[in-house]
Amino acid sequence: MQPISEERKEHYLDSMAGNLKMLRSRAGLTQREISGLIGVSHQTYVNAEKWGRLSWNTYLSLLFLFEKEFAAQPQILKLMRDLEIYPEEYEAVPAAAGERWGSSGHERME
């Protein structure tokens, strides 16, 4: 798997930031709940939603959260892909990567 370029990272950050309020609403979560779940201050999350600026780590935390929240709603996961929120580079992660993760004592990622 190739690393994600800085240009692509910016694209994903902008896509996530531009759709945060909609995704949060569909997840049925408050700003406080999301900030607590991803480990940032309430103000940091509010600023991200209001001003559209995210760090890469916050983006990854939100991506993980929304994947888990919407696991039973494939139409929302498809929407995230269509809006280019989900990195296409992550679609190509080979199964062996998940197996290596699982072999280290952690749950296997699917």
Word description of this protein:
This protein has 7 helices and no strands. With 110 residues, it is mainly α. The protein has a single domain (6-103), classed as 434 Repressor (Amino-terminal Domain) (Orthogonal Bundle). Helix 1 packs across helix 4 (56-69) and helix 2 (31-38) packs across helix 3 (42-51). Residues 96-110 have low confidence and may be disordered.
First-to-last CA distance = 17 Å
What is the top-level CATH class?
Mainly Alpha
CATH fold naming:
434 Repressor (Amino-terminal Domain)
Gyration radius, in Å: 14 Å
Keywords:
7 helices; mainly alpha; 0% strand; 110 residues; 434 Repressor (Amino-terminal Domain)
Short overview:
The chain is mainly alpha-helical and 110 residues long.
Write the layout of secondary structure elements.
Elements: H1 6-27, H2 31-38, H3 42-51, H4 56-69, H5 74-82, H6 88-91, H7 95-103
